[in-house]
Amino acid sequence: MATASRAALTVEVMEMLAGLDPRLWEIVEPPVPPNPIHAPGIPVGFRSAVDGERLNPQPLPPGDGLLASVRGMAVSVADATIAASLAGRKPAEVLREVGDDICPEPPKLPWPKKWPVPVQLREHLITDPNRVSPAVQASAALVFQSYAHRISDKNLSTAFGDLAERLLERALKTAGSAG
After folding, report:
1. Which helix (H) or strand (E) element contains residue 141?
2. Residue 144: partners with Cβ closer than 8 Å, 6 or more residues away
3. Which of 92, 140, 154, 160 would give a disulfide with 74, using CB separation of 3.0 to 4.6 Å?
4. pLDDT band at 83, cuts 50/70/90?
5. Domain boundaries, the chain
């Protein structure tokens, strides 16, 4: 894959994820640093989105927890897959079932049937169903790809990498057909 297309793919994934958590736009398009005159003694490099929360201590909107829920689900699935592998099950079989659940035909929930569905997922599906499934799939893909790169067991690594690729392909396909 050419470097330019990898960069485009990364931007598309970040756009999907920023749809669930707008604070992620700072990764793609960093904000202009605040004027250091207004906060003497604090170097500009030490400012972040947390500074804005300190100035405006309102609670975050209820839907903002979805990205954390997706990450938590994916980590739980990965850990359960490792445990199942230790118990003698084939990782690819476990992850194939999870992949089928996370890659359903719309309008089904893009969530593993054996994991509790977060309230935020239902809320987001009501407000913007065309953006939610790809974002869930893309963020779960990033977690599984991380496991694939960090684990030394070849069967587990391959199974995690295959699921990550499947989820990312589906996310991009769904996002492309909705836009």
Report:
1. helix 129-150
2. 74, 77, 78, 95, 160, 161, 163, 164, 167
3. 140
4. very high
5. 3-55, 62-178
